[in-house]
Design goal:
Elements: E1 2-5, H1 9-17, E2 23-25, E3 37-43, E4 50-55, E5 65-68, H2 72-82, E6 92-94, H3 101-108, E7 114-119, E8 122-127, E9 130-135, E10 138-143, H4 152-159, E11 165-168, H5 172-193, H6 204-223, H7 231-244, H8 251-257, H9 268-278, H10 283-293
Parallel strand pairs: 1-2, 1-5, 3-9, 5-6, 6-7, 10-11
Antiparallel strand pairs: 3-4, 7-10, 8-9
Helix pairs in contact: 2-3, 5-6, 5-7, 5-8, 5-10, 6-7, 6-9, 9-10
The chain binds nicotinamide-adenine-dinucleotide and ketopantoate.
Ketopantoate binds near residues 183 and 251.
Amino acid sequence: MIAILGAGSLGRLWAASLPAGQVAFVARPGASQGAAGIRYRFRPLTDSGTTIEVPWLRASDAPEMVLVTTKAGDTLEAVAGVIERFSASIPLVLFQNGLGSQQAVAARWPDRPILAASTTEGANRPEPDLLVHAGSGDTWVGPLTEPAGNQLDSITARLGASPLRVHPETDILRRLWQKLVINAGINPYTAVLDCPNGNILSAPLYQDTIQDLCGELSDLMRASGQGNDTPETLRQRIETVARNTAHNTSSMRADVHRGRGTEIAFINGYLARLGKDLGIATPVNQMLTERVQQLSPK
Ligand code: NAD
Ligand code: KPL
């Protein structure tokens, strides 16, 4: 059995995709579990919809792994609240966007097998009991702590029993950085400008700051041992994704629309903090972080 902590969009996508009967959601500590589990409608990419029922993990269940699909800002507390339920050899796979939350979990439990995943799957919940698989992608999984290293192939194979494409990645930090660059160059602009991804490209705020933002990203990556990509290369990558997802509402814009906290502290906020630590000026990351923080409750 695979346990999933975080019954939101991504958690429900995994629960609907893994073989039926082999998944359970981990309840928040102290939460009253009126029902036996969670029931929702699932709209896959191609087939017609179906109804999914996922039980709550029982105290007597011993899951083989835990997928952590909370938002970055909730992750450390969510894991801390339940980790004692799982034996020390059970791997935890962290699915958060951005950087910072994964390192915080790995630093707190270095002796546990902790892995991170970077995914380009897209899922959302236009209604509370409807899960839409909005875009197919790839998921890379790789170890963060030493004990996770020898479990990578078995975990990838187990998750690959779903229709989702899953790949082992020994350098998961590199993948997380690649996605971080894209999110740092698209998400805050869409939130501040309140527009779909493609519309940022012609906006003065974007045009006036993107070259400097990419300069900051390039400097931070080089200083962090993440290669020597030039600002121009990073800008091209950001703009290719913005064009390919031109009509999408980014996750950050969606969070602002719903009045929820965003993941800005783990995207541009993470980069601004890293800049301070490394002695690299990051005024554009700082400005974007502050502008987004003004839009959302945390
Ligand atoms: P979400 O807000 O839909 O789901 C998070 C869930 O975690 C919510 O249901 C929330 O109630 C639950 N949660 C929070 N604290 C908890 C706790 N202590 N115990 C149990 N549950 C708790 O978010 P999401 O869209 O599923 O995204 C989750 C993470 O995956 C984010 O970091 C996001 O950036 C990343 N991600 C999402 C997608 C996607 O398509 N949705 C794609 C790539 C990456
Ligand atoms: O990952 C994304 C997000 O919205 O968080 C992008 C790539 C910007 C697609 O919308």
